[in-house]
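Long-time lurker, finally posting.

We've been working with Replication protein A OB domain-containing protein (Holothuria leucospilota) and I want a structural starting point before designing mutants. I don't trust myself to interpret raw outputs, so I'm hoping someone here can both generate the structure tokens and explain anything notable. Sequence follows.
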Amino acid sequence: MASTSSPYARPLKAQILGIGPVKDFIASNGEPRQFVQLGLATHEQAIKGFHYNPEKLKTIKENNFVIIKNYNTRQDGNITLNASTLMYKCSSFEIPQTIKDVARQFVYPPEANIVTIMEASSSPVKTMVSLKGFITQDENIREVNVGGRPTPVRGMTLEDNTAKIKVSLWRDKTSSPVKIGDYIHVSNLTITRFNNESTAGTTTQSKIEVLQPPQEEKNITIDGFIQADDSTWELITEDGKSLTVDATTLAMHLETEPSNLEDALACLMPWNIDAVMTGIHINSFPTPNA
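Top reply, 14 upvotes:
Generated this for you. Predicted structure of Replication protein A OB domain-containing protein:
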């Protein structure tokens, strides 16, 4: 986290437009440290601040106007604050809205564009994307070593109608109450690549939301079937995907009794059919059975 810096010549008067979450890192001496990112706006420019003593921010809130003393300026124009830094609250002053917007986005960047999973998979490494899709696999939370510290991670597979991708939920995102079958929106994921396979991982700006799944009509070819329980049949497509359908829906479409479904389906394999689906569940068949 360190960079070459030099003392500022005079106090800095600014408005705090954003205060990020506390982040952990390992200092060059091997000790665990913490910092908080700030979005600061002066009447002339937006500045990123990195405070390495987050405890001193307890009395500071977003939108406060402050005078900052004893800080360093970095070569990139941003500033670092530490235990020696002093922050005095002061009266407000005029700041152009454009500068305020940039300062806030340092901490709260706008949501990355929603793309298809196929588009995400072909995106360059470190591209930020947002995705929508069904959870088709969900792993247990495990710990991995990140920067010398055990860090929780939870893997899952997200799938839409274009492709599927492995997604890693990091740190606090591992406790998200989502499950297999949920249709979710995950914002601000970072694309990585390992063994020539694209994956996506959450960031501190990521949000996970369960949505009402979309309904879509598809043409599918069924290669096999099995009765899952008294009210549900499971069908397998030619590309190996498992789908579910209610027995009553299937029997009505095939114009037979539920007790005769096995014989009726056996005569149809392989079966090419149009189906209205929500995720992996067939809701209806829009055309009469041929």
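Before you design anything, note these points.
The mean pLDDT is 91.
The CA atoms of residues 20 and 153 lie 21 Å apart.
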